[in-house]
Specification:
Layout: E1 4-6, H1 10-20, H2 26-44, E2 50-56, E3 61-67, E4 70-76, H3 83-89, E5 94-95, E6 97-102, E7 109-115, E8 124-128, E9 131-132, H4 136-147, E10 152-160, H5 162-171, E11 176-182, E12 185-186, E13 192-193, H6 199-204
Bound molecules: 1-O-pyrophosphono-5-O-phosphono-alpha-D-ribofuranose and uracil (URA).
The site of 1-O-pyrophosphono-5-O-phosphono-alpha-D-ribofuranose has 23 residues, from strand 6, strand 9, helix 4 and helix 6.
Length: 207
Protein backbone atom coordinates (compact mmCIF):
# COMPACT_ATOMS: atom_id res chain seq x y z
CA UNK A 1 0.00 0.00 0.00
CA UNK A 2 1.46 3.37 -0.97
CA UNK A 3 1.29 6.45 1.25
CA UNK A 4 -0.64 9.61 0.28
CA UNK A 5 0.03 12.12 3.05
CA UNK A 6 -0.71 15.78 3.68
CA UNK A 7 2.06 16.65 6.11
CA UNK A 8 0.21 19.32 8.09
CA UNK A 9 2.84 19.93 10.76
CA UNK A 10 2.44 23.42 12.29
CA UNK A 11 5.90 24.52 11.06
CA UNK A 12 4.98 23.50 7.51
CA UNK A 13 1.59 25.24 7.70
CA UNK A 14 3.24 28.43 8.96
CA UNK A 15 5.87 28.47 6.24
CA UNK A 16 3.36 27.64 3.49
CA UNK A 17 1.21 30.60 4.64
CA UNK A 18 4.25 32.85 4.12
CA UNK A 19 4.85 31.28 0.69
CA UNK A 20 1.26 32.00 -0.34
CA UNK A 21 1.57 35.71 0.50
CA UNK A 22 2.03 37.70 -2.72
CA UNK A 23 4.19 40.20 -0.77
CA UNK A 24 6.84 37.58 0.09
CA UNK A 25 9.94 38.52 -1.93
CA UNK A 26 12.26 36.27 -3.93
CA UNK A 27 14.93 35.69 -1.27
CA UNK A 28 12.45 34.87 1.48
CA UNK A 29 10.42 32.71 -0.91
CA UNK A 30 13.51 30.73 -1.92
CA UNK A 31 14.56 30.21 1.70
CA UNK A 32 11.05 29.07 2.66
CA UNK A 33 10.83 26.55 -0.22
CA UNK A 34 14.10 25.08 0.96
CA UNK A 35 12.95 24.93 4.60
CA UNK A 36 9.61 23.29 3.76
CA UNK A 37 11.44 20.77 1.55
CA UNK A 38 13.66 19.93 4.52
CA UNK A 39 10.66 19.38 6.81
CA UNK A 40 8.81 17.27 4.23
CA UNK A 41 11.98 15.25 3.69
CA UNK A 42 12.05 14.40 7.39
CA UNK A 43 8.55 12.88 7.18
CA UNK A 44 8.98 11.20 3.80
CA UNK A 45 12.19 9.43 4.76
CA UNK A 46 10.89 7.72 7.92
CA UNK A 47 11.03 4.30 6.26
CA UNK A 48 14.26 4.68 4.27
CA UNK A 49 16.41 1.57 4.46
CA UNK A 50 19.34 1.69 6.85
CA UNK A 51 22.41 -0.47 7.28
CA UNK A 52 24.36 -1.36 10.38
CA UNK A 53 27.87 0.00 10.87
CA UNK A 54 30.39 -0.10 13.68
CA UNK A 55 31.77 3.18 15.04
CA UNK A 56 34.14 3.84 17.89
CA UNK A 57 32.71 6.31 20.39
CA UNK A 58 35.07 7.89 22.98
CA UNK A 59 33.74 5.22 25.37
CA UNK A 60 33.21 1.97 23.44
CA UNK A 61 32.47 0.31 20.11
CA UNK A 62 28.89 0.98 18.95
CA UNK A 63 26.86 -0.96 16.44
CA UNK A 64 24.65 1.69 14.91
CA UNK A 65 22.70 2.54 11.77
CA UNK A 66 23.29 4.79 8.75
CA UNK A 67 21.19 5.41 5.65
CA UNK A 68 21.61 3.03 2.73
CA UNK A 69 21.70 4.47 -0.84
CA UNK A 70 19.33 7.21 -2.10
CA UNK A 71 18.83 9.61 -5.02
CA UNK A 72 17.00 12.88 -5.70
CA UNK A 73 15.42 14.02 -8.96
CA UNK A 74 14.11 17.59 -9.09
CA UNK A 75 11.70 18.45 -11.89
CA UNK A 76 13.17 21.55 -13.53
CA UNK A 77 12.92 24.31 -13.04
CA UNK A 78 10.96 24.88 -9.83
CA UNK A 79 12.04 21.58 -8.26
CA UNK A 80 15.58 22.97 -8.10
CA UNK A 81 14.38 25.22 -5.29
CA UNK A 82 13.86 22.13 -3.09
CA UNK A 83 17.26 20.52 -3.65
CA UNK A 84 19.31 22.43 -1.07
CA UNK A 85 16.81 21.73 1.70
CA UNK A 86 16.77 18.03 0.85
CA UNK A 87 20.56 17.84 0.60
CA UNK A 88 20.92 19.43 4.00
CA UNK A 89 19.09 16.35 5.34
CA UNK A 90 20.64 13.75 2.95
CA UNK A 91 24.02 15.25 2.01
CA UNK A 92 25.35 12.17 0.19
CA UNK A 93 22.37 11.84 -2.18
CA UNK A 94 23.08 11.84 -5.90
CA UNK A 95 20.99 14.32 -7.89
CA UNK A 96 19.45 13.66 -11.31
CA UNK A 97 17.52 16.29 -13.27
CA UNK A 98 14.35 16.10 -15.34
CA UNK A 99 13.47 19.16 -17.42
CA UNK A 100 9.74 19.64 -18.08
CA UNK A 101 7.54 22.64 -18.68
CA UNK A 102 3.78 22.84 -19.20
CA UNK A 103 2.47 23.92 -22.58
CA UNK A 104 0.36 26.92 -21.58
CA UNK A 105 -2.57 26.00 -23.86
CA UNK A 106 -2.79 22.22 -23.50
CA UNK A 107 -1.31 22.12 -19.93
CA UNK A 108 0.54 18.99 -21.08
CA UNK A 109 4.17 18.60 -19.98
CA UNK A 110 6.94 19.02 -22.58
CA UNK A 111 10.21 17.27 -21.78
CA UNK A 112 13.48 19.02 -22.62
CA UNK A 113 16.11 17.35 -20.44
CA UNK A 114 16.74 14.17 -18.49
CA UNK A 115 19.97 13.22 -16.76
CA UNK A 116 19.77 10.63 -14.00
CA UNK A 117 22.39 8.70 -12.02
CA UNK A 118 23.23 5.31 -13.63
CA UNK A 119 22.40 2.92 -10.81
CA UNK A 120 18.92 4.35 -10.23
CA UNK A 121 17.33 0.88 -10.30
CA UNK A 122 18.90 -0.19 -7.00
CA UNK A 123 18.14 2.94 -4.99
CA UNK A 124 15.38 4.93 -3.34
CA UNK A 125 14.37 7.81 -5.61
CA UNK A 126 12.73 10.99 -4.31
CA UNK A 127 11.12 13.20 -6.97
CA UNK A 128 10.85 16.89 -6.08
CA UNK A 129 8.44 19.48 -7.49
CA UNK A 130 6.77 22.24 -5.46
CA UNK A 131 3.49 22.12 -7.43
CA UNK A 132 1.21 19.17 -8.21
CA UNK A 133 -1.44 20.89 -10.35
CA UNK A 134 -2.90 18.64 -13.09
CA UNK A 135 -0.30 16.06 -12.07
CA UNK A 136 0.93 15.73 -15.67
CA UNK A 137 4.52 16.84 -15.00
CA UNK A 138 5.03 14.62 -11.95
CA UNK A 139 3.44 11.61 -13.69
CA UNK A 140 5.64 12.03 -16.79
CA UNK A 141 8.78 12.52 -14.70
CA UNK A 142 8.07 9.34 -12.75
CA UNK A 143 7.40 7.43 -16.00
CA UNK A 144 10.86 8.54 -17.21
CA UNK A 145 12.44 7.39 -13.95
CA UNK A 146 10.66 4.02 -14.08
CA UNK A 147 11.81 3.52 -17.70
CA UNK A 148 15.37 3.68 -16.35
CA UNK A 149 14.58 0.90 -13.89
CA UNK A 150 13.72 2.67 -10.62
CA UNK A 151 11.35 0.71 -8.39
CA UNK A 152 11.23 2.61 -5.10
CA UNK A 153 9.94 6.12 -5.77
CA UNK A 154 8.51 8.86 -3.55
CA UNK A 155 7.14 12.24 -4.64
CA UNK A 156 7.51 15.33 -2.45
CA UNK A 157 5.64 18.57 -3.26
CA UNK A 158 4.71 21.74 -1.39
CA UNK A 159 1.14 22.18 -2.68
CA UNK A 160 -1.30 19.94 -4.52
CA UNK A 161 -4.67 20.34 -6.18
CA UNK A 162 -7.12 17.44 -5.68
CA UNK A 163 -6.99 16.83 -9.45
CA UNK A 164 -3.19 16.42 -9.39
CA UNK A 165 -3.17 14.14 -6.34
CA UNK A 166 -5.75 11.88 -7.97
CA UNK A 167 -4.03 11.84 -11.37
CA UNK A 168 -0.60 11.04 -9.90
CA UNK A 169 -1.94 8.34 -7.60
CA UNK A 170 -3.91 6.73 -10.46
CA UNK A 171 -0.95 6.87 -12.88
CA UNK A 172 1.55 5.55 -10.30
CA UNK A 173 -0.29 3.80 -7.45
CA UNK A 174 3.01 2.39 -6.15
CA UNK A 175 4.51 5.85 -5.51
CA UNK A 176 4.30 7.44 -2.04
CA UNK A 177 3.11 11.06 -2.20
CA UNK A 178 3.92 13.66 0.48
CA UNK A 179 2.68 17.26 0.19
CA UNK A 180 2.52 20.19 2.59
CA UNK A 181 -1.07 21.21 1.74
CA UNK A 182 -4.00 20.10 -0.39
CA UNK A 183 -5.72 23.11 -1.95
CA UNK A 184 -9.24 23.63 -3.23
CA UNK A 185 -9.07 23.29 -7.01
CA UNK A 186 -7.45 24.29 -10.30
CA UNK A 187 -8.52 27.43 -12.17
CA UNK A 188 -9.12 27.62 -15.95
CA UNK A 189 -5.39 28.26 -16.55
CA UNK A 190 -4.41 25.18 -14.57
CA UNK A 191 -3.15 27.14 -11.54
CA UNK A 192 -3.73 25.83 -8.02
CA UNK A 193 -6.36 27.85 -6.09
CA UNK A 194 -5.63 29.54 -3.71
CA UNK A 195 -2.06 28.27 -4.36
CA UNK A 196 0.99 30.47 -4.35
CA UNK A 197 1.21 31.49 -8.02
CA UNK A 198 3.92 30.32 -10.39
CA UNK A 199 6.49 28.59 -8.20
CA UNK A 200 9.34 28.78 -10.74
CA UNK A 201 8.82 32.49 -11.35
CA UNK A 202 8.70 33.22 -7.62
CA UNK A 203 11.82 31.14 -6.85
CA UNK A 204 13.87 32.64 -9.66
CA UNK A 205 12.33 36.13 -9.76
CA UNK A 206 11.37 35.87 -13.44
CA UNK A 207 8.10 37.78 -13.22
C1 LIG B 1 5.23 24.01 -12.82
C2 LIG B 1 5.57 23.18 -11.60
C3 LIG B 1 5.35 21.78 -12.06
C4 LIG B 1 4.19 21.94 -13.02
C5 LIG B 1 2.95 21.47 -12.31
O1 LIG B 1 6.27 24.01 -13.73
O2 LIG B 1 6.86 23.39 -11.13
O3 LIG B 1 6.46 21.19 -12.71
O4 LIG B 1 4.08 23.34 -13.32
O5 LIG B 1 1.87 21.45 -13.16
P1 LIG B 1 1.14 20.11 -13.61
O6 LIG B 1 0.95 19.31 -12.37
O7 LIG B 1 -0.14 20.63 -14.20
O8 LIG B 1 2.00 19.42 -14.62
P2 LIG B 1 6.24 24.93 -15.06
O9 LIG B 1 5.63 24.18 -16.18
O10 LIG B 1 5.62 26.26 -14.71
O11 LIG B 1 7.76 25.08 -15.39
P3 LIG B 1 8.94 25.81 -14.58
O12 LIG B 1 9.21 24.95 -13.37
O13 LIG B 1 10.06 25.77 -15.56
O14 LIG B 1 8.52 27.20 -14.21
N1 LIG C 1 2.58 25.49 -11.65
C1 LIG C 1 2.81 26.47 -10.74
O1 LIG C 1 3.93 26.94 -10.60
N2 LIG C 1 1.77 26.92 -10.03
C2 LIG C 1 0.54 26.42 -10.13
O2 LIG C 1 -0.38 26.87 -9.43
C3 LIG C 1 0.33 25.39 -11.08
C4 LIG C 1 1.36 24.94 -11.81
Amino acid sequence: MSVVEIVDHPLIQHKISLLRDRNTGTKEFRDLVSEVAMLLCYEATRDLPTEEVEVETPIALARTKVLAGRKLAPILRAGLGMVDGMLSMIPAAKVGHIGLYRNEETLKPVEYYCKLPNDISEREVIVLDPMLATGGSASDAITQIKKRGAKHIKFIGLLAAPEGMKALHEAHPDVDIYVGALDEKLNDQGYIVPGLGDAGDRIFGTK
